[in-house]
Amino acid sequence: MAAEPWFAEPLPLSPGETAPLDRLEPPERPEDPRELQPEAAQLSLLQEAPGSTPSPPDPMVPEPGPAAPARLALDAMFSPVTDQLRYLLKKADDFQSYLLYSRDGVQKEQLAKVMPTFLKMCEPYFLYLEAAARSVPAIYGALQELVRKGLLEISQQLTLRLEQLIFMYASFGFVDLEDTDPLSISCFFCGRFSIGPSHEVSIFRYCSPAAYTASRFPRYLYKKMRWNLETTPEPNSREQDPHVDYYFLCYRDTWEDSGQSPANSCPQIQKLWSIGRWVPLGPADDDLYSWILCPQPPGDYQQLLTIGFEEPSHMLATDLLVQVLMGQIGPARPPSAAWVAQGS
């Protein structure tokens, strides 16, 4: 197991200040599940998902010999990951208590530093979870789906807890969620993975729905997630610099489009969710002053998937994006994606 520390140094304390939190000591780094693939673990994963309660053995059917060692191997594989999750969730609870019960003028600067520091602290864990679950080459055999699902559910659980905590700090005025402010925490990083030798996807989650552009064009469109697709040129390619495309999970307020008020609209059809690509409309690349004076560059929305009126989970939204991207830059999309309706 790696010995080097994962995280930045603890938050600095003022002289004489007594913090209600313990120091942010670096936990042990989880082991890569791809390194733990004994045959026993693969047999176990066919029988039991992570975190599930094992069924009692049938007295009429003899239990296979390697079952007990297989379960131990599975638990050993997930133990460092779940221990790390408990550690970070405990820190989130501590920071929430710190906000609610320890606020005063002396600690104001300290509270303002909590969220940026804690988000940086979580980044290596998100990198590990998403890369181990999604990156190409994937985990094959019996480990593929069960380990993937277990890791992504852990990633989603931590993402939702951070979103809740950031929103709470914003409600007390210690965090700014304004998307046009470069110093705000309008969104936060929650993982990166590869979908090919020259394509990497970074995931960002908006703490609060943000207008798609500062000018609200396209109309009534709000962002909830963003993915940066970075393409690295091949060695023999003419292009030399990496290129980044931006994809968004958005919803459109259909009641605003119809001119009705929310009170008179059916709540099930207020938000139509979709995944689309950012199409830049300006400013010009060679006009530096236009970029400086522009609060947010204007852009169009190329809708790629229409999802429906129910918000997809963090995990499902990224799954759907990957299916779209694999259809564009890689092999054919898996058959499970055939039900998704293409947007206009």
UniProtKB/TrEMBL annotation:
Biased composition (Pro residues): 53-67
PANTHER family xrefs: UPF0575 PROTEIN C19ORF67 (PTHR36292:SF1)
InterPro entries reported for this sequence: DUF3314
The organism's place on the tree of life at top rank: Eukaryota
Pfam families documented for this protein: DUF3314
Region of interest: Disordered: 1-67
Sequence ranges of Basic and acidic residues compositional bias: 20-37
Coiled coil: none
Taxonomic lineage from the root: Eukaryota, Metazoa, Chordata, Craniata, Vertebrata
Protein name: UPF0575 protein C19orf67 homolog
